[in-house]
Amino acid sequence: MIDKKEIKENINTEWKIPLENQKEARYGLCRFIIETCQKLNLSNETTSLAMLLTNFFYIKKCYFNYDKLTTACAAILLASKTETSENKFTEICKEYLSFQSKSLNQEGIRKIKEIIGKYEIYLLKELNYNVPEEFPYDLICIYSELLYPDNDQEIANFATKIANDSYFTFVNNIYKNHVVALACLVIAARFLDIPTILDENFKHINNMKKINKKEMTLDEFNKALNQYDNSQYLFNSKDKDKDSEKKEEELVVDEKYFEGLGLCEKLHPNLTMADLLDCIKIIIEFYEDMNAKSNEEPNNQN
């Protein structure tokens, strides 16, 4: 995670590169990563991680000092290693050379392998050799099932597409996965013209206390929600040694505790409304940028 202030006050800003130019560079690199990962049949998670790593790197390092395309290829290489043991290095190098309209001979591949390998080390050093492996996708599915039981698959699919697009922005570098997942669900609900969790008296918010009735263990849910704090208060005990009367008492305690929580605390104990709204705003700004760009293109052709 990075501090939001670093976005506007990063080293590129010190080098007088306008934020708009930084954004254009980021969008271009993200598009290249998406296209390359699709050609190599890499997963959404690998694609998202490569975008995340590239975004992080250029918050810390200046665009002037590093070749952007090589950085993106190094990020794809590093991200692909978390998905499969199959070596994608040669294929990534071929995509790089093809994009640069250079010859795909063995000597060219060997040279670019050396360069991309060096950039992979640059990335790892900047990350302090700690490569993130968590994504908002699983949480989107869990929250969709709980909060939208009547049409969970539709909203999960829509929110997943938004989560893919969110990697064009810095939200995944700034916020934890539960914030991004919920922001994507709010935006998806707005697009689908259905109630969001921000609407007053949202119908299914209380489903968050009924997870023990789902076909997953409490431990699995806790892990998916970043070790959900206070879970001992929100869910019924499953200790079979306790008698039924004791379980009923615990249910009453759980109900009272849950009802006393605010909206954000019901969704996640570390969630704040300010973070959620800011995350939504940043993702929506990306879509506004894309709409503005698409509206400009016909004019540029005239």
Walk me through the structure.
This protein is mainly α and 302 residues long. The chain folds into two domains: 5-126, Cyclin-like (Cyclin A, domain 1, Orthogonal Bundle), CATH 1.10.472.10; 137-286, no CATH class. The protein has 16 helices and no strands. It has helices at residues 5-8, 11-14, 19-39, 44-60, 68-80, 89-99, 106-126, 137-147, 152-166, 171-174, 177-192, 218-224, 231-234, 244-259, 263-267, 273-301. Mean pLDDT is 84; it is low at 212-218 and 226-242.
Summarize the structure.
With 302 residues, this protein is mostly helical. 66% of the residues lie in helices and 0% in strands. It folds into 2 domains: 5-126, Cyclin A, domain 1, CATH 1.10.472.10; 137-286, no CATH class.
